[in-house]
Amino acid sequence: AHQWRGLLAEYREHLPFSDTDTLLTLGEGGTPLVHSPSLSAQVGAEVHIKVEGMNPTGSFKDRGMVSAMSRALSDGAKSVVCASTGNTSASAAAYATRAGLTCAVLLPKGKIAAGKLAQAVVHGARLIQVDGNFDDCLEIARKLDAAFPVELVNSVNPYRLQGQKTAAFEVCDALEDAPDIHILPVGNAGNISAYWMGYQEYRDKGISTRTPAMWGFQAEGAAPFVAGRPIPNPETIATAIRIGAPASWALASAARDDSGGLIDAVSDEQILDAQAILAGEVGIFVEPASAAGVAGLLQQAERGAVPRGARIAITVTGNGLKDIDTALSRADLTPTVIPVDIDAAAEAMGL
Ligand code: F0G
């Protein structure tokens, strides 16, 4: 039986590695594309969900990280650094372990979901909390990269986007062509740029016949693309995308414009509602930021802007288990306590 070999091996002919490079893997990529009858019915289209929380560290970051870390290792780097809202650092910590490199992560103090912090800790990264936001962390990381012998593995490293573009390949492979629309959350804006690169490459090579419109969604309090300029103090419950000065500004703007797409904003309430719909109606538990795309799809549907019958792929970027505090704060946690007794159990179940 065929075992998935990791995305660098599976998509090698589309990636800029040579025969002498060391290609790492923790089994990333090859994530499921799940058709959702309920979302499809709700918006009058054909909705497929790309479940990126199935990656080794629970987010899409593993696609870019396996690529950037393989480059760093092959180039003889000893140590890597990144700024992060949590998922990039979790992934960097895991892949640095695999590569045998030391890893330092710069995190905005107090704004990282507990599961993500735990990941950086257990994988042995040096955890540095900055009394500022993600944008401040990234500025420091870029300056460290310029001044010290340390490799930057944020998405400004072009190998990150190279790895992440493979998600677009997988969607095309699964659907046997590109969808009409691809939807995803936007924070630092690397992922929308990477998907657009992947879709264009598959079309240019004749593997697919067309490219989708790229629809990106930001959190209302952290929506620089909607404002048309950086936001100095971004705020949202979706801490993963609490970013005011996206690094891939030009690439993401081109993805939006050249694809005939859009980048819009959704409120925190819409994000949490979409997270609840994904968990309670679709059966997929995602972290809040990951639900921004679904929130955006529902918003567009309410506005009558979703073309009837369109084939839509929507990326949910990270696993819900990373941020259980936010999820539990919305749930009714009053448990039913019973004695060790079958009749009491049956009664509690309403049988
Ligand atoms: N969804 C999740 C779960 C994320 O962690 C991120 C980014 C995004 C969406 C946005 O993707 O930045 O490519 O536009 N997280 C980064 C991090 C910033 O540090 O983990 P993007």
Automatic annotation (TrEMBL):
<feature type="domain" description="Tryptophan synthase beta chain-like PALP">
    <location>
        <begin position="25"/>
        <end position="318"/>
    </location>
</feature>
<dbReference type="GO" id="GO:0004795">
    <property type="term" value="F:threonine synthase activity"/>
</dbReference>
<protein>
    <recommendedName>
        <fullName>Threonine synthase</fullName>
        <ecNumber>4.2.3.1</ecNumber>
    </recommendedName>
</protein>
<dbReference type="InterPro" id="IPR026260">
    <property type="entry name" value="Thr_Synthase_bac/arc"/>
</dbReference>
<keyword id="KW-0663">Pyridoxal phosphate</keyword>
<comment type="function">
    <text>Catalyzes the gamma-elimination of phosphate from L-phosphohomoserine and the beta-addition of water to produce L-threonine.</text>
</comment>
<comment type="similarity">
    <text>Belongs to the threonine synthase family.</text>
</comment>
<dbReference type="InterPro" id="IPR000634">
    <property type="entry name" value="Ser/Thr_deHydtase_PyrdxlP-BS"/>
</dbReference>
<keyword id="KW-0456">Lyase</keyword>
<keyword id="KW-0791">Threonine biosynthesis</keyword>
<dbReference type="InterPro" id="IPR001926">
    <property type="entry name" value="TrpB-like_PALP"/>
</dbReference>
<dbReference type="InterPro" id="IPR036052">
    <property type="entry name" value="TrpB-like_PALP_sf"/>
</dbReference>
<dbReference type="Pfam" id="PF00291">
    <property type="entry name" value="PALP"/>
</dbReference>
<dbReference type="InterPro" id="IPR050147">
    <property type="entry name" value="Ser/Thr_Dehydratase"/>
</dbReference>
<comment type="pathway">
    <text>Amino-acid biosynthesis; L-threonine biosynthesis; L-threonine from L-aspartate: step 5/5.</text>
</comment>
<keyword id="KW-0028">Amino-acid biosynthesis</keyword>
<dbReference type="InterPro" id="IPR004450">
    <property type="entry name" value="Thr_synthase-like"/>
</dbReference>
